[in-house]
Every structure is written in C-alpha cells, then in structure tokens.
Amino acid sequence: MRILFITNLYPPYHIGGYEIACKDIAERFRRRGHIVRVLTSIYGVDKPVMNDDAARLLDITLKLNSRQSLFEKSSSLYFNSTNYSITKSYIEDFAPDIVSFWSVNGISASTIFAAEKKGISKVFHLFDRSLSYLRKTGIKGVSNYLFFNRLNVKHLISSSSELKKDYVSRGFAEANIAVIPHGISIKEFAFKEKKTNRALRLLYVGQLWEAKGVSVLLKAAGLLKKENVDFILTIIGKGEQSYVRFLHDVCKKENVADDVQFLGRVERQDLVNYYQENHVLVFPSIWKEPFGIVLLEAMATGTPTITSKCGGPLDIVKDGRTGFFFESGDYKALASKILLFERSRNIISEMGHTARQTVLERFDIKIVVNQIESLYSRIVN
After folding, report:
1. What is the pLDDT of residues 113-128, one digit of tens each?
2. CATH superfamily of the domain spanning 2-183+364-380
3. Which of 328, 321, 332 is nearest to 361 (CA)?
4. Which of 161, 164, 110 is nearest to 132 (CA)?
C-alpha cells in the first residue's frame, strides 16, 4: 500500500506519546514493504524541510494549556488555507491509497478536507480528543451540517476503550471505532530483575503540567517522609518554568526537596535504564489520559506501576497483578499504595514479571501492526 501519515507533530520534535506511536507504526509499515510518507508541521525546525523521514511543511498554531484567540482557534482546529493547499498538492504528488490521520490539533481539519477533495480513503487514529472537538453537541450541533458532516469520518482507531466511550458520547458511531492499543518493541525495553535491598526508588515520566498530577505525587511523597520511608523520587519531563517552580515549592513545603530529583527531558532510548533502576513507575494523572505509553515501557522492563483509576490506563494495568490503581487526585490513597511496595518488597518482583508478560501478550508492536495493517487493507479494498 501507499500510505500517507498526516500528524501535527513527529519525532524527534514531539511533546507526548502519540507522536512516538505514529513514528513507530510508520517505520514498521516501511519495514513490511509499504510505501510510506509522513506530512507534518514545521514544529521544531526553522523552516520547511523535506527528507526521507518526513515532510515538515505544515503551519502549526499550538498553544498548550493556554487560551487561544478566536482566529488562532479557527486556524488551529477548523481551517487553514495554507495547509489545505499544501496537503492537496502533496496528495496529488504522492497518490496514496490511504491517508492515516493522527492528531490535527494545530494544523486544522483543512488537511482532512484536502484528502476528502481528492476522494482518498481515510483512517483516523485517536490518541487525543482533538477530532471530537470538531463535532459540536447540543444547540451548537447545527454547525455539523455545515462543517463536520462534510468530513466523512467513518474509519477510526481508538487507542483505548475509555477514549472510544468519549467519542461515542459526542455522537460518533460506535460501530465505526475499532479499539487497537499502541504497542512497543519488546527488545528495546529489556527486562531486568530489581534490587530491593535499598531505598525505594520511585519514577515519574511525562510532561509537567497540572493535569498530569505531579503535585499529587509530591504530596504523597510528603506523607512517605512522615512515615520515615527511605525513598528517592526521580521526575523526568519538561514543562513551563512557572509550573516547574511551583513543583519545587511543593517539594519544600512537603519537606522532600532532598528526596526528589528533577532531570528534565530524557531521550527515549535513555529511558530504559531509568525504568530498570527504579522499583515503581507512578502515573498520577488527574485527567482521563487517552492511553499511557510510558506504562508499557516500564512494564516491559519489569517495573510495576501505580496509576490513577481513569482513562486509558484502565486497559493496560491489571490491578493487584501488574500494579495498583488509586482514585485520581487522592494523594493519601497514592501514598498508601506506595507503602504496599515498601512493606512487601517481594511484590515488586512478582508484579514486574507479570507486567512484562502482559506486554508480551497484548502490547507487542508486531501484534498491533498486524491489526492496523489488516484494517487498512480492508478500508482500501
């Protein structure tokens, strides 16, 4: 097949997990002999550039966690004439059998309109909720007749059952949404037995902003300190300077500044060592995460997890077998789950082995690509 991937961000210039997922799938398709091109934005580069990896040509208006003006919102979500022209020309030049859309947040639905104009088969990977924002509900739903219904959105792949529920609640047909999780390359995240005769080592990997719940984790750390637990918490990820300063202030308030280390961003290939050397990965998001690739990466190395009980992680973690759930935002509940690992060190190894096996059986990238490839073939044929 000739496959065109369209995504707002693409590694190495990325922010979250879905962009990594996009590249993983694109590269796997190439290895299987498919002709694959990637059209993405100029995010991370000084000017438009085309190479064998991706065509970084699209305009992008992306403001994370901040308000947009009406014009910015319109051009980032609904229509951007420049991106429409670029996408239309690119499709005419490449002549794909199918266009695979990932997030259009910031590059607008004009990219979808361009594919629709050329009559190309389309499939939409749902790793965030940006596509659902295009479909209005309630009294605003009249705009669907003028805008959304013209997009012909029929084939969707949700990364989790919880995200699928969100889309169905906004009027997307349940029968049109297949649930296919992301996967990881097992060999890139090698298993390593934990050394448990030392301080409890806790790890957070992800963006640093309010909805990620890092402050909840720091408050839980404060309770551990009061219980005289010997621990080290490593936080990997970047965020706005003002929020990072806030997190440092929380550390001081909770008297854990000496027990917490902020490492900033770490390249994906270097994360393996951190997963292997820490006892538990904590995933404390307050919002409903669409998925949670870092959970798979940690589990593959034999690292059990503690995660908030909402969103995509519900499809990944087996409570009491590969990790524990806690109620989102409840730092006392989170602390109590961490204490289970501190007081029963043997479950770190037991859960780690089960976690690794879970990834092998359900989230191996080969299994996932087989499912996606089969669906693409059915759409094209």
Report:
1. 999 888 899 999 998 8
2. Glycogen Phosphorylase B; (3.40.50.2000)
3. 321
4. 164
